[in-house]
């Protein structure tokens, strides 16, 4: 008959464990042979100096006081060691130990694998290792949540700032980190740096099934993948970026005309190959030139009308315009606007947001707004097919409107740099304008923030050419 796990209560005392090391650990810890003879328990309770009880169970992730730090000493939450409790065993009545599995910080992994970029790790980020250790229960401070960050998950739950999270695993002896940092991220193959406050370090996500990839705003702009769409056209193209289907979304117009598609291609130095566009039935294959070696873009015609086979180098624009049959895009757009206007305003507004993550978008937390925007788009598509919008659609998004709508905060030093650019009267005018803003009331500052939000970079996905 299996032994029922018990629970222990003991006072919290000064920790005796030292910095966890593979070649040792706490010298007072039991040996492996001694551990096998110790009595097993399912949980333990630590009573602090105020008399409050803290329960720790097998499977909990807990914060451990670092070596040299006593209970009550001031310490930032992100400076704690973090571990997963695997077993709890009793050596004597007041000597209880745990077998734990460590979560390493980015700096610790960098110490073992020099090629690992610890600067791309957040302060609350931990890497789950295969390093086990024995730690005294007197060193435990509190149970903490540990969130999972997954780059390819379009249902990625919201991760608030100030919460521990993990995205990598680390095998110490093999020096193996999985998944490989940056391997499937951006054109630069550099990983997401969650604490980088620069607006151009924001990452934009393309949710289309053939893409599912994050890109740095800076890298897309360097590659010439900025979009010149006016705001209404951009919102519509973002809404058309479906997480479930390639091509035109059922219930919505195709979201653009011939000139828009040509403008996107010419701005980015793209040349179309063979194939048919969204109106011709099939995907457009586009070769990206100008610094993006061997990157192929498929489906630029999604949500944008194209005329089938074309080479911009050989075409006669005047002759082409005479032969073209233009669709009644104004009527389609008006019909779409009327149907969207019948839906909850905030739901549509969220569905039209770019999917973004980064420290410059603090309301999005660590993971950004990907899950909320994806769910909102699915609800809008379903409503346009004739289905009812769920009565509790706000709860189904998983976050509030504030966490889903992109508002970018520009650091003060970056504002100064921008205001200081240029000489002469123009530079002085910018400096005066900045001083004027600083002297305004709080309400005006909020208005300025909204203006920055409306000017979030309009970018294009290098894989499919759609708005992101």
UniProtKB/TrEMBL annotation:
Biased composition (Basic and acidic residues): 425-438
Residue ranges of every copy of the BAH domain listed in the record: 54-181
Region described as Disordered: 1-32, 307-335, 409-454
Segments of skewed composition (Basic residues): 1-21, 439-450
Bias (Acidic residues): 313-335, 409-424
Gene3D superfamilies named among the record's database cross-references: 2.30.30.490
GO molecular function: chromatin binding
PANTHER family tied to this protein: OS08G0421900 PROTEIN
Protein name according to UniProt: BAH domain-containing protein
């Amino acid at each position: 008959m299996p032994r029922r796990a018990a629970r222990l209560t003991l006072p919290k005392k000064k920790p005796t464990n030292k910095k966890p090391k593979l070649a040792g650990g706490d010298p007072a810890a039991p040996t492996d042979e001694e551990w096998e003879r110790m009595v097993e328990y399912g949980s333990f309770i630590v009573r602090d100096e105020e008399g409050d009880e803290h329960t720790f169970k097998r499977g909990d992730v807990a914060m451990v006081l670092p070596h040299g730090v006593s209970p009550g000493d001031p310490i930032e939450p992100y400076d704690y060691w973090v571990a997963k409790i695997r077993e709890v065993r009793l050596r004597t009545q007041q000597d209880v130990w745990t077998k734990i599995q460590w979560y390493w910080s980015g700096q610790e992994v960098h110490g073992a694998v020099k090629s690992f970029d610890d600067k791309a790790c957040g302060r609350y980020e931990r890497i789950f290792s295969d390093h086990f250790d024995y730690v005294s229960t007197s060193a435990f401070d509190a149970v903490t949540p540990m969130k999972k960050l997954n780059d390819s998950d379009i249902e990625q739950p919201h991760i608030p700032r100030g919460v521990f999270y993990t995205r990598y695993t680390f095998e110490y002896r093999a020096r193996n980190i999985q998944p490989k940092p940056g391997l499937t991220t951006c054109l630069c193959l550099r990983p997401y740096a969650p604490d980088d406050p620069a607006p151009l370090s924001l990452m934009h996500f393309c949710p289309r099934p053939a893409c599912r990839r994050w890109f740095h705003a800076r890298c897309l702009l360097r590659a010439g993948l900025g979009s010149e769409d006016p705001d209404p056209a951009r919102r519509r193209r973002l809404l058309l970026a479906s997480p479930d289907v390639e091509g035109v979304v059922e219930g919505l117009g195709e979201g653009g005309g011939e000139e828009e598609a040509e403008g996107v291609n010419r701005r980015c130095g793209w040349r179309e190959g063979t194939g048919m566009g969204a109106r011709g039935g099939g995907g457009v294959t586009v070769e990206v030139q100008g610094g993006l070696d061997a990157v192929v873009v498929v489906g630029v015609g999604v949500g944008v009308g194209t005329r089938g086979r074309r080479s911009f180098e050989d075409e006669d624009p005047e002759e082409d315009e005479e032969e073209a049959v233009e669709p009644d895009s104004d009527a389609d757009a008006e019909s779409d606007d009327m149907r969207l206007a019948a839906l909850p305003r905030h739901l549509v507004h969220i569905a039209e947001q770019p999917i973004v993550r980064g420290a410059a978008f603090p309301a999005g937390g660590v993971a950004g707004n990907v899950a909320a925007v994806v769910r909102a788009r699915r609800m809008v598509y379903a409503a346009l097919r004739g289905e009812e919008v769920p009565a509790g659609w706000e709860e189904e998004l998983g976050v509030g409107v504030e966490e889903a709508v992109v508002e970018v905060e520009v650091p003060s030093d970056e504002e100064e740099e921008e205001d200081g650019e240029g000489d002469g009267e123009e530079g002085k005018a910018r400096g005066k304008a900045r001083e004027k803003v600083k002297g305004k009331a709080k309400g005006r500052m909020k208005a300025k923030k909204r203006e920055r939000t409306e000017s979030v970079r309009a970018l294009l996905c290098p894989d499919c050419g759609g708005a992101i």
